[in-house]
């Protein structure tokens, strides 16, 4: 049973836009993921401490702590935690910056649903 | 007075004076000579006549004596009348009558009768001057029996003197005329014509036409003037061409700078907008996709949803392509010498400062270390800050620029301070000057992006910008950049 329960990975979705969070929840749950939401960088850092998180989908543009700051903190506290960094039209500079700060993957908004699901699956499968 | 008239005057006065004095002296001398020759002639004739008359007196035939004297007077041009007086001073024989000089020279006659010595005397009678020569007449016993007076009208001389005077005046006039003509011609050919050519060339150069070189065939002062003028015209031409080139280069560079500033603003606007619309676009297309997956194959609503997804893809592609165009390239980080960047910039901007009526002073430390920067980006930041300062300080203010080594948080670097004497920024606005789209300038003049872009650039280079200002106390921007470390 314990092994089975471990087969449902938990995705932490960090985005200040509620509709965006709900979209990812609606897409990921039918694909076999538990979804936890955080509306800010601070919430995200707390949730990573308190919950069992397998993968983080982290948006760059947020009020307060920016996605890049959160990335740095997460990488320091949970070096092995895979983070998929997401930003709207970020361009190659942001991609390079996020990867250098410890993100595992970089996906640019707007993305196709298939793309984000495939990326999350690749990350979680790789860890299994 | 023209050069020609002045020169002719100067050339003519001395000869006129000299010839005039010469003429007067010459006439006087001529007069004296003529007089003296006349008298000699009169004396000579008188002595001859004296001998003839003495002989005739001894042989007393008086009527014939009168005829003899009349004939002598007719023949001799220099003798106008002969009279014979007895010891009682009575005129016994008179050759002819004369309009003037009728009164006998009594004193001279008396002396001649007393002494027996001939004597000449001149006397004026009205307008005429009469020369009398008186000789004694002796009888057979050698005693003085009477006196003979020979009269000569000197006025006849005037004719000759007048013609001599006219001769001198004529020569003098000819001299003056030829000097005038010669001077005029020589002056025209040798001086005035080259001067006119020079004047014309100077006018041309003044109008900015390329000067035709003046001929330098003469080896004199004017030739040297022409040569010096040609050299000057050539130098002016070169200087003018250089200035035009320099101005064109400056304008080109200004245009480039303005262009890159415009691109930076457009880039920032585009990426700001892109970040804002990225998430909504993602939600729309995501929701459409989500619905699409839930509908069975063949449902006509699938096509509608597919249109939404495709159109969002199209919008995204457009935005990505726009961002590729305006996104600044990667900064080219190099060791940059601020003093040379500033020097070049101020060369360009000093003109702008003057146009704003703003005076500039620059104090750059000579021992600045090179900073770590992208040359173009740094230039863009400095232009932004300097142009703001010029605009704040106008119309008659002052902008000062200093650059010196400065340590910040233990890192070595360079600080550039740009101060203006403008109205200053109120404290309430000071905190917002680096906010995008915040501008203190009148609407339409500032984009409100100059300072935010500058700050982004400087932070990207590891530096920073801050501001100090107070109302009525001007504004100073401090730009700091880290020293370039050798790698």
Salient structural properties:
heterodimer; A: 128 residues; alpha/beta; 5-stranded parallel sheet; 6 helices; 5 strands; disordered N terminus; B: 487 residues; alpha+beta; 5-stranded antiparallel sheet; 5-stranded mixed sheet; 10 helices; 12 strands
In short:
The complex is a heterodimer of chains A (128) and B (487). Chain A has 128 residues and is α/β, with parallel strands linked by helices.
Write structural notes for this entry.
Chain A has six helices and five strands, in the order H-E-H-E-H-E-H-E-H-E-H. Chain A is of the alpha/beta class and 128 residues long. The longest helix of chain A is centred in the last third of the chain and has 15 residues, at 113-127. Chain B is an alpha+beta fold. Chain B contains ten helices and twelve strands. In chain B, strand 11 and strand 12 (475-482) form a beta hairpin. The radius of gyration of chain B is 60 Å and the shape is rod-shaped. The chains are: A alpha/beta (128), B alpha+beta (487). The interface between A and B is medium-sized, with 20 and 23 residues.
Itemize the secondary structure elements and their pairings.
The complex is a heterodimer of chains A (128) and B (487).
Chain A: H1 2-5, E1 10-14, H2 18-28, E2 34-38, H3 41-50, E3 55-59, H4 67-77, E4 83-88, H5 91-100, E5 105-109, H6 113-127
Parallel strand pairs in A: 1-2, 1-3, 3-4, 4-5
Chain B: H1 3-58, H2 62-75, E1 81-86, E2 91-94, H3 106-115, E3 119-125, E4 128-138, E5 144-153, H4 158-207, H5 221-294, H6 301-326, E6 333-336, H7 338-355, E7 359-364, E8 371-374, H8 375-393, E9 398-408, E10 411-420, H9 427-430, H10 450-460, E11 464-469, E12 475-482
Parallel strand pairs in B: 7-9
Antiparallel strand pairs in B: 1-2, 1-5, 3-4, 4-5, 6-8, 9-10, 10-12, 11-12
Helix pairs in contact in B: 1-2, 1-4, 4-5, 5-6, 7-8, 8-10
């Amino acid at each position: 049973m314990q092994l089975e329960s471990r087969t449902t990975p938990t995705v932490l979705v960090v985005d200040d836009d509620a509709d965006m969070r709900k979209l990812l929840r609606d897409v990921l749950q039918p694909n076999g993921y538990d979804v936890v939401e955080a509306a800010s960088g601070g919430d995200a850092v707390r949730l990573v401490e308190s919950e069992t998180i397998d993968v983080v989908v982290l948006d760059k543009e947020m009020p307060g702590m920016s996605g890049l700051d959160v990335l740095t903190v997460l990488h320091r506290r949970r070096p092995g935690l895979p983070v998929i960094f997401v930003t709207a039209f970020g361009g190659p500079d942001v991609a390079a910056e996020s990867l250098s700060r410890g993100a595992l993957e970089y996906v640019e908004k707007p993305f196709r649903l298939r793309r984000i699901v495939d990326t999350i699956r690749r990350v979680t499968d790789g860890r299994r | 007075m023209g050069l020609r008239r002045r020169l002719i005057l100067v050339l003519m006065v001395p000869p006129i004076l000299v010839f005039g004095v010469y003429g007067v002296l010459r006439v006087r001398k001529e007069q004296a000579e003529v007089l003296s020759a006349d008298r000699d002639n009169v004396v000579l004739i008188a002595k001859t006549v004296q001998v003839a008359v003495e002989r005739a007196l001894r042989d007393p035939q008086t009527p014939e004596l009168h005829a003899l004297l009349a004939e002598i007077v007719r023949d001799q041009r220099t003798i106008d009348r002969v009279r014979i007086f007895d010891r009682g001073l009575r005129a016994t024989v008179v050759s002819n009558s004369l309009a003037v000089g009728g009164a006998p020279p009594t004193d001279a006659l008396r002396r001649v009768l007393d002494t027996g010595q001939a004597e000449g005397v001149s006397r004026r009678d009205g307008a005429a001057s009469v020369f009398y020569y008186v000789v004694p007449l002796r009888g057979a016993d050698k005693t003085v029996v009477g006196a003979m007076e020979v009269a000569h009208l000197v006025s006849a001389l005037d004719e000759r003197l007048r013609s001599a005077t006219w001769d001198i005046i004529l020569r003098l006039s000819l001299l003056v005329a030829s000097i005038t003509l010669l001077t005029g011609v020589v002056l025209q050919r040798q001086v005035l014509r080259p001067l006119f050519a020079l004047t014309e060339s100077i006018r041309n150069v003044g109008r900015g036409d390329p000067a035709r070189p003046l001929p330098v065939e003469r080896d004199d002062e004017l030739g040297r003037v022409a040569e010096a003028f040609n050299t000057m015209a050539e130098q002016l031409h070169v200087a003018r061409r250089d200035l035009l080139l320099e101005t064109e280069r400056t304008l080109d560079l200004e245009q480039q700078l303005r262009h890159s500033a415009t691109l930076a603003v457009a880039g920032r606007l585009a990426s700001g907008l892109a970040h804002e619309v990225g998430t909504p676009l993602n939600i729309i297309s995501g929701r459409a996709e989500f619905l699409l997956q839930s509908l069975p194959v063949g449902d006509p609503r699938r096509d509608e949803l597919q249109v939404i997804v495709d159109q969002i893809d199209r919008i995204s592609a457009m935005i990505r392509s726009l961002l590729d165009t305006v996104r600044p390239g990667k900064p080219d980080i190099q060791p940059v010498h601020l003093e040379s960047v500033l020097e070049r910039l101020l060369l360009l901007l000093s003109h702008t400062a003057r146009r704003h009526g703003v005076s500039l002073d620059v104090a750059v430390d000579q021992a600045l270390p090179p900073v770590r920067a992208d040359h173009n980006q740094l230039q863009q930041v400095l232009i932004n800050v300097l142009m703001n300062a010029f605009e704040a300080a106008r119309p008659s203010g002052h902008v000062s620029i200093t650059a010196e080594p400065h340590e910040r948080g233990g890192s070595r670097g360079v600080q550039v301070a740009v101060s203006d004497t403008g109205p200053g920024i109120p404290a309430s606005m000071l905190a917002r000057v680096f906010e995008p789209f915040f501008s203190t300038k009148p609407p339409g003049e500032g984009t409100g992006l100059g300072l935010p872009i500058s700050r982004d650039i400087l932070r990207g280079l590891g530096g920073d910008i801050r501001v100090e200002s107070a109302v009525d106390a001007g504004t100073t921007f401090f730009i700091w950049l880290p020293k370039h470390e050798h790698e």
